[in-house]
């Protein structure tokens, strides 16, 4: 360092790089709530135009407006979509094509957790069907709807949100665990079918994630076990190698990577983001 330059006055090295997703069109289901919000933001940061889909249009449109303020060079389309209804998912794909002329990326984020701390013998069958409908059918139908466009476009990316509860048994969460195992199976099957078209299909498997869903899970478990929220939280966190939960942005970063060209040879795999829970 020159004599007249100090650590305080030295320029900070920078490296400019192209936006990974500039010119790409990405559909995100469950786009405003939970991990969907940070995922949309990560894709917008990379220059992608976004189709934000969900049922709560107030939340969807508010999130789209916020993204427009922060990333004015990207375009956004909001679409009301129930991912368990094929007509809705077909309309979602059609709206994206009408607005942008193509689809490059699909991120299936919409999902529900179902009953907490409920053994199978007490698990209502209607709840079981509902969880599988949203988490599995709600991943299949948007994928089915966009596959023709991805093939016509010469390739693309699909990312599904599975979970660590789909990596091993998860007592007292039979609906949720079953659904996430199924999402992993769907992911691998689609990867095999779509690989010849240069379409990658992968799953991100989060552990319990800081946020509204985590609060619901911990609160529900605490109530059923007669423990405090803090006791259940600490017990959950202690089961990970890093001693903590993950954040929604950690999932968004995994998605950012999987939809980029840096992951062009990764398909049919589970990217586990769990602070070392499943080790």
Strand order of the largest sheet: 3-2-1-4-5-6-7
Question: What overall geometry do the principal axes of the alpha carbons give?
Answer: globular
Biggest β-sheet strands, sense, barrel: 7 strands, parallel
Unreliable runs: none
What structural category characterises the helix and strand content?
alpha/beta
What do these coordinates show?
This protein is 44% helix and 14% strand. By secondary structure, the protein is α/β, with parallel strands linked by helices. It starts with 24 loop residues before the first strand and ends in a 6-residue tail after the last strand. The protein has 8 helices and 7 strands, in the order βαβαβαβαβαβαααβ. α1 packs across α8 (248-258), α3 runs parallel beside α4 (125-152) and α6 packs across α7. It is globular. Strands 3-2-1-4-5-6-7 form a 7-stranded parallel sheet, sandwiched between helices. The chain has a single domain (25-208, 247-273), classed as Rossmann fold (3-Layer(aba) Sandwich).
């Amino acid at each position: 360092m020159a004599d007249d330059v100090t650590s305080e006055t030295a320029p900070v090295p920078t490296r400019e790089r192209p936006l990974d997703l500039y010119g790409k069109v990405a559909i995100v289901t469950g786009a405003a709530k939970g991990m969907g919000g940070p995922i949309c933001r990560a894709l917008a940061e990379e220059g992608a135009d976004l189709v934000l889909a969900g049922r709560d249009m107030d939340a969807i449109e508010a999130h789209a407006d916020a993204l427009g303020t922060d990333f004015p060079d990207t375009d956004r389309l909001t679409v009301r979509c129930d991912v368990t209804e094929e007509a809705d998912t077909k309309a979602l794909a059609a709206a994206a094509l009408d607005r942008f002329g193509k689809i490059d990326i699909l991120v299936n984020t919409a999902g529900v957790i179902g009953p907490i701390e409920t053994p199978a013998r007490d698990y209502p069958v209607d709840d079981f069907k509902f969880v599988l409908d949203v988490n599995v059918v709600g991943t299949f139908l948007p994928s089915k709807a966009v596959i023709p466009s991805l093939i016509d476009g010469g390739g693309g990316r699909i990312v599904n949100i599975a979970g660590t509860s789909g990596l091993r048994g998860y007592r007292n969460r039979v609906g949720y665990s079953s659904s996430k195992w199924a999402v992993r199976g769907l992911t691998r099957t689609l990867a095999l079918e779509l690989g010849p078209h240069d379409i990658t299909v992968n799953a991100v498997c989060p552990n319990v994630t800081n946020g509204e869903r985590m609060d619901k899970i911990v609160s529900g478990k605490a109530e059923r076990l007669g423990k405090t929220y803090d006791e259940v939280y600490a017990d959950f966190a202690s089961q990970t190698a890093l001693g903590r939960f993950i954040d929604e942005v950690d999932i968004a970063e995994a998605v950012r990577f999987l939809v980029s060209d840096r992951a062009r040879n990764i398909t049919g795999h589970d990217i586990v983001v769990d602070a070392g829970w499943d080790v």
